[in-house]
Amino acid sequence: MRSSSLISCSRLVLALVGFAALIEAAPITYIESGLASGTIGGSTFTNALVQVTVTGDTANVVPIFGGFVFANVSSATTVFITGIGTATVTDPNAVYSVPTPVAIDTGFPVLPYVVIGTLDSPPALESFTGIGAQGDNALLGYDLTTAIGPITGSPGGVGYPTGLFVNTNLGHLSFTANITPTAQGTFTATLVPEPMSLLLLGSGIALLAGMSRFRVRS
């Protein structure tokens, strides 16, 4: 009888975890970083560590170009520049994954890529300008829905076409160079548990622990 009770309790825990997954899609944070130079507002930065952080949700990942590319529209994007601080990007933007090897531009190696880009004609996702990118075989098959990294190497990093700028709450952000095939960067994606998921999981674990204590006393 005690064994049957423990099994039932374990099943309840699994049910709670499964229910949490159903009611809450997973928030996810994508980060691309690298050394870059440019200006933001009235401030200049040179060979500074720049980190672009995009917050999204795995439920919003969609296939485009016939499933050849995956996209996830940002709910919030910031740019941290060492020595200056953090700016919020006000241009619509998204994260893109090309999970099969491709040359994304002239001179770039044939690899799977992840690109953070501002939308050229929002809300359309099919045309964008990259502000951060990473190419690596570790991204093979990656569809933006799971945690990955850190992936460090070349090509990668942060940049933007010269003559163009990104709108932020600190003013126009421009770079002295675009991302190059030899630039180095680091990409990570991290899943963020929702409070409700944590609550249900905690409740299930507590119930299982209580059941175990009851079994010992008996």
Describe it:
This protein has helices at 2-23, 195-217; strands spanning 27-40, 43-57, 62-64, 69-73, 76-81, 85-88, 93-102, 111-119, 128-135, 148-153, 156-158, 166-168, 171-175, 185-191. The chain is α+β, with helices and mostly antiparallel strands and 218 residues long. The relative contact order is 0.21. The termini are close together. The longest helix has 23 residues, at 195-217. It has two domains: 1-24 and 196-218, no CATH class; 26-193, no CATH class. It is built from two helices and 14 strands; from the N terminus they run H-E-E-E-E-E-E-E-E-E-E-E-E-E-E-H. 21% of the residues lie in helices and 45% in strands. The strands form two sheets. Strands 1, 2, 5, 6, 10, 12, 13 and 14 form an eight-stranded antiparallel beta sheet that branches.
Main β-sheet, in a few words? Answer: 8 strands, antiparallel
Radius of gyration: 22 Å
Task: Tell me the fraction of residues in β-strands, as a range.
Answer: 35-45%
What is the count of DSSP helices, taking H or I runs of 4+ residues?
2
Number of strands: 14
Helix content: 10-25%
Pick out the low-confidence regions. 1-23, 203-218
Q: Give the CA-based shape.
A: globular
Number of domains: 2
Distance between the termini: 11 Å
Q: Please, what is the average pLDDT?
A: 85
Q: Write down the secondary-structure element order.
A: HEEEEEEEEEEEEEEH
What class, by secondary structure content?
A: alpha+beta
